[in-house]
Amino acid sequence: MEMEKLVSLCKRRGFMFQSSEIYGGINGFWDYGPLGVELKRNIKDAWWRDMVTGHDDLAQLPGAPAAYEMTGLDCTIIMHPQVWKCSGHYDLFHDYMVDCRESKKRYRHDQIQGRWVEAKGKKIFATAGSDSESPEADLERQALKFFGMRSKNADELKWDGPLVSLTTVDDFEQVLGPDAKSLGSLTPPREFNLMFKTTIGALGGDSDAAFLRPETAQGIFVNFKNVVDSSRVRVPFGIAQVGKSFRNEITPRNFTFRSREFEQMEIEFFCHPDSSQDWYTYWRQRRFQWYQDMGLDKGKLILREHHPEELAHYSIGTADIEYAFPFLPEGEYGELEGIAHRGDFDLRSHMEGKLDPNTNPMTVELNEEGKPKHRGSGKDLSYRDDLSGERFVPHVVEPSAGADRAMLAFLCEAFTEDEAPDDKGKMQTRTLMKLHPRIAPIKAAIFPLVKKDGMPEMAQDIYRTLKKEWNVFYDEKGAVGRRYRRQDEAGTPFCITVDGDSMQDQTVTIRHRDTLDQWRVKADDLSDELRKLIG
Ligand code: GAP
């Protein structure tokens, strides 16, 4: 699938627009249009329903070590700044970036790639930025230009070694920046915190600084005690939250894949340390299956286990659910969701002060004066099991998903072109969005075949009845074939047509978006039929 076709359909049909587009847009921010808002809402609702409200607290689900409870929270975006100090985001949540003094552009250090190349007795490190589609070709062009050579002499360039990241190069004096003409224009890498800073109140001093949350998870940790004290949940249980997160990504890209404002759907699952490994295994499988149930092709999904050396020692494991997004090179996958075993790091950090993840067992990180570098809340966040009497700090398994990433994957998966006959029976290329009926923005479209003979009246009655339960759409304008095509592009799974026979026998046709099958049902049975079809 060509990504450009999907991007253009998303704009044309109102799934997504660039934020502030009339002012030229703002990089890394996206708006959801009339169809997009419904699709994204349906994804979040399906997640909430499947993980939280629809969860059977009494049953032991297949693969789960025990029955468990689920509940939810909705926390603020701006929280006490100490939250981010204890969570580690204040000290550790950064990327390294380099600036080009010549082009004034900024790049992520690890995303600049290049090769050593020699000509005319001089050796340089030629580079290409992360947006380069063919880095090798770009490097050759750049090197030829730098050495003042013509393309027919390209074989005089002596390349040394493969394409490597700029992180392998120490001496920046030999580096030719991706958009520079002279050597040594890149600054040394500098830390760049990804949290958006803001100010609370009118004075605006340093003590009023706050941050937009970079993840929803911390709101759950700091409310752990509130939830335990105010509800009757018992460990093991999970708290879910859906909401906006903000990261000042240096290189937002690939449509909404890496945005600066996005939504997360996170669960913090609290369990006894002895069973945390089993819960980790359960959640990996549970979440991996969810994407397939919602329509992603298993062949395009992988569950990638992090290497042991990537893990903090307190973590038994982290696995990413990844999808073969069409904008990635063949064989590469992009992260949809991470499932992390976080041990007791978060609850203990918020109690005692930020722990040093490099200590074993973990101890509070100290400053030069030997005091906690970041003070904790001092509140007791341990849990007492009222049946066994045992008191312990629960371990956490965290399935953390992105609503925008999930939506992008569903859109990529859904985009389809096939051949279908038009009104005159001639085969035409048809574009359709094969969205799962549960997440499709519009569940059914209702058409009178023609605007006369009582058909519009009957179709409007059907529309009003179905509208009580679903987002359905009424359309009487233009040829019926054109109306079908518009709904195919919007991802509407079913079209209901009122025709001449309907006036006689009170039946209507239902047309299936993907198979083009059509069948008749009694108008009175439509709600039951749709309920079965949507699932
Ligand atoms: N609490 C853990 C956490 O936030 P993460 O891997 O940084 O973990 C979880 O983020 C999920 O949030 C990712 O798998 C992705 O789906 C989504 N996400 C993260 N950064 C994003 C961005 N810049 N744009 C869109 N989605 C993002």
TrEMBL record:
In which broad location class does this protein mainly occur, judging by the first location in its UniProt entry? cytoplasm
**Where is the protein found, in the record's own terms?**
Cytoplasm
- Keyword annotations for this protein? Aminoacyl-tRNA synthetase, ATP-binding, Cytoplasm, Ligase, Nucleotide-binding, Protein biosynthesis
List positions binding substrate.
108, 215, 262-266, 398-402
**Secretion signal: which residues?**
none
- GO biological processes: diadenosine tetraphosphate biosynthetic process; glycyl-tRNA aminoacylation
Q: What's a GO cellular component annotated to this UniProt protein?
A: extracellular exosome
- Chain sites annotated for binding ATP: 247-249, 257-262, 335-336, 402-405
Q: Where is the Aminoacyl-transfer RNA synthetases class-II family profile domain?
A: 139-441
Q: Which GO terms describe its molecular function?
A: ATP binding; bis(5'-nucleosyl)-tetraphosphatase (asymmetrical) activity; glycine-tRNA ligase activity
Query: EC annotation?
Result: 6.1.1.14
Q: Which reaction does it catalyse?
A: tRNA(Gly) + glycine + ATP = glycyl-tRNA(Gly) + AMP + diphosphate
Q: How the protein assembles, per its UniProt entry?
A: Homodimer.
Give the protein family.
Answer: Belongs to the class-II aminoacyl-tRNA synthetase family.
Q: NCBIfam families, alphabetically?
A: glyS_dimeric, PRK04173.1
Q: What does this protein do?
A: Catalyzes the attachment of glycine to tRNA(Gly).
In its UniProt entry, what is this protein called?
A: Glycine--tRNA ligase
- Organism annotation: Bremerella alba
Lineage here is:
Bacteria, Pseudomonadati, Planctomycetota, Planctomycetia, Pirellulales
Name of encoding gene? glyQS
